[in-house]
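Model: Ready when you are.
Researcher: Fold this.
Model:
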Amino acid sequence: MADHCDGKGLLIHICCAPCAIHPLDVLRRQGMKLKGFFYNPNIHPFMEYKRRLDALRGYAAKEALDLHIEDSYDLEGFLGKVLERPEFGKRCALCYEMRLRQAARYAREQGFDLYSTTLLSSPYQFHDLIKEMGQRIGEEEGVEFFYHDFREGFREGQNKAKELGIYRQPYCGCIFSERDRYRKQKLR
């Protein structure tokens, strides 16, 4: 691996501010140059998307993190893909594909050495799938996927978000995960 202090550095896709806290701490301790990348057309409804984006903007400003926001909110594109396979797990793979591909393309276009994602911090995500998909997409797009298992700091990051008053969302992001979460609560 190249010396990432001398190169362009690492572009990190950020799903939300709480999930970014631990990975950013780890990567900065490793001396990496970082740029955040927000592209999450999976977050619904729109006010939830806005709330998460605002929380990330505030955290990025506090941490002096350079942040690129792809604020297209492609609701139709996301739903068009996941409605073909709306089952838990299958829709997640489509969601990861959209977001990782967009991050890898941006990383390549901007000359970054590496790209990664804060999705790797959540114990609720399909970690092995993200790793495999990130590596494959990186090869296809011509930018290396940086893998690190950030799950060990997930609770620490969530606790820090709570201490800082950063919005912590109650579900993954898509309307299907919101429905599934609250449907389960209703059944209890």
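Researcher: Now this one.
Model:
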Amino acid sequence: MDYGMIGKIEKAKRYAAEPHRFHFESFTVRVDGENNQHRVAFQSGTWSCDCDFFQSRGVCSHTMAMEELLKDMLQQPQSS
């Protein structure tokens, strides 16, 4: 039995139970929309999406859904 790995698994479970430890800084996600697939990206506190609505408004249902899904786990933009 690999006791070192058992310790790592237990530590991972503790971390996962404390989501405040995690802060997403950047990622890209494919969102399966009702009509098409879209790429949503998060980089340095800023969202982007390849859908037409986002291109004209700077926000869309795909980015809002990701914000709701991840809530407090996202890096907040730095205030100047």
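Researcher: Key takeaway?
Model: The CA atoms of residues 5 and 11 lie 10 Å apart.
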